[in-house]
Structure formats: C-alpha cells, structure tokens
Design goal:
- By secondary structure, the protein is mainly alpha-helical.
- It has a domain of 35 residues.
- Helices cover 48% and strands 0% of the residues.
- The protein has 19 helices and no strands.
- Helix 6 packs across helix 7.
C-alpha cells in the first residue's frame, strides 16, 4: 500500500506578502498612467467629439450639433429632420459614403485620408435609377473631369445637393425653387458668366424672378453640358437656332445671332460710341446750352436696351 504524502498547510504569512507586493505594483502602475496620461493624449490628439445617447447609426455622432473637427473646425453635424425630408430618407448612409469601413470607422477617422465629399458626390452612379443620367454625364465636360479625378470638377452633389436633396420630378415646389438657384448651382464656379448674364429679356428677367426666363441649363444643357467650341454643344454655332427654338419657335440662324447679347450686353454697349461718350456729351450739352455742369448732370438719359 502506497504511502500518501501529508499535504502542507499554506504559509499564510508568505501569501499575505505576495498580495502586498501585487498591491504595491498595481498602485505604481496606476500612478504612472496618471502621470503620463497628458503626454499620451497629446501624442494622439482626438479629432472628433464623443457621440450622444438616444441616436443610432451614423447619427450617434453626426446628430450632435456640436460635432466639429478639432483641427479644421469643420462642422460635421447632419440634421435628422433634413434627412427625413429628403428623397434619400430610406437610403443607408453607406450607399453614398462608400469609403466608410463598417468594421471600425470611416477611413478618414482612421487617418487614411480620402476625399469623402467627392466620393459621396459621385456615388449616384452606383444607383441603377440614375444610369441614363450617368451615361450622358460621362460624356460631358463636367463628367470627364470629375471621373478623371479633377478635384475642382462638379459632382452630382455639387449641383443637386446632398443630405437635403429632393425629387425634381415629384416635388413641384422644389423644382421651382431649384430652377431659380442658378447663381448657387452654376454661378459659384462661373461667377463672371453669371454676372454677365444681364441682358434685358433673359438674364435681367431671370434675376428678377421671372418664371419663364431661361436658366443656365436651359441653354447650355445640364448633364450633357459641353464647351461651345465642341460641335455637340447646345450653344455651338451650328446648334444655336435649335436651342433658341425651344422658346422661340421657327427661329433661324439669323435670329440666333442676337444670342451674343445674352452674355455680351455690356461689351456691346461699350462699343456703342453714343453710350461710351454719353458723360462727355452731357457735359458739353450742359455747358453749351444750359450754362453749367450741374444742369448737365440733371439731364438723365433713358435706360438703354440692347
């Protein structure tokens, strides 16, 4: 019969000493963490504020009106009410923000900088409902530049909007509002052309709110826009009669020549000798027939029309 060893009783004193050592080490570790915490925070700066309760998905963070990038001061807040009023209210955020990494966070949050705005702005091409527009946009001057990587080229979102976008087909009030927003849609990139759109019957009428006055894309095209130098352009010399004919039935090439006034009114008037020297003529008239410059200044010519 084998003899079983007698079990040793634990050394309580040694056990207490071990626990004491671990307690001291834990306290030292905690102290070191508190001591170097500021340095660690400075080494890895926080770029975003913390999310708010009561929200789900992307709005956990982006539903906070105070959400701002620390470095750029860019506001990243997205209004839930605006989203609910848009045509994309049932579309998941990642359908447009395709550079988002759902496993962790967006690539930009991880420091892998991507042009999220540009990516989202062109994501309409991924929806089969926009296939027809994409086919036309691809061939346009805007599309070729944007698809080719030009950062300044307008994307779908630059013209149509993003989170607030509504249906131009179903929402008549929005369509009317959008139609009168040429300065925002086109003028932000082409300020000189928008400023020169001031002839009496087209530009000036449009800018005063005339609903039947043409907006930029009525003449130049929208998704299919091309430079005037290209023969396929709606404002190419050979196509002007057809373009003008949309509002002026039976227009001919001779009629279309007056289209030069639409953006060239000031230039044309500047070439008119009577307009160019009107101030000198008024001064001469006042001095000769009225006897004073003050009298000449009181003579106001009728507003010139092109």
């Amino acid at each position: 019969m084998a003899i079983q060893p007698i079990p040793q009783r634990p050394n309580r004193r040694a056990s207490m000493q071990t626990r004491a050592r671990f307690s001291v080490l834990a306290a030292l570790a905690a102290g070191l963490c508190l001591l170097f915490a500021p340095a660690i925070a400075q080494a890895a700066p926080v770029d975003f504020t913390i999310g708010i309760p009561g929200k789900t998905g992307c709005l956990v963070c982006h539903g906070d009106p105070k959400l701002t990038e620390v470095k750029s001061k860019k506001v990243l807040y997205i209004s839930e009410q605006v989203m609910l009023g848009s045509v994309h209210k049932d579309v998941p955020c990642t359908k447009c923000h395709t550079d988002f990494d759902s496993a962790l966070a967006s690539q930009s949050h991880q420091g892998k900088k991507t042009d999220s705005k540009k990516i989202a702005g062109l994501s309409c091409k991924n929806c089969h409902e926009h296939a027809k527009q994409l086919k036309v946009y691809d061939k346009s001057t805007h599309g070729r530049l944007a698809m080719g990587g030009d950062d300044k080229a307008p994307t779908c979102a630059d013209c149509h909007g993003s989170h607030e976008i509504k249906s131009l087909k179903k929402d008549k009030a929005y369509k009317a509002e959008f139609r009168m927003s040429a300065q925002k849609v086109c003028g932000k990139c082409h300020p000189k052309y928008y400023e020169s759109y001031n002839d009496y019957y087209h530009g000036r009428a449009y800018k005063t709110g005339a609903a039947d006055a043409p907006t930029c894309w009525d003449c130049h095209g929208a998704h299919e826009i091309l430079p005037a130098a290209q023969t396929e352009s709606k404002v190419a010399k050979g196509n002007l009669a057809k373009t003008c004919g949309a509002c002026h039935p039976d227009s001919r090439a001779g009629f279309a020549k007056f289209g030069a006034l639409i953006h060239g009114r000031d230039t044309m008037l500047g070439k008119n000798l009577l307009i160019k020297y009107k101030d000198k003529l008024l001064t001469w008239f006042g001095n000769t027939f009225l006897g004073s410059k003050e009298a000449a200044a009181s003579v106001k010519p009728a507003a010139a029309k092109p």
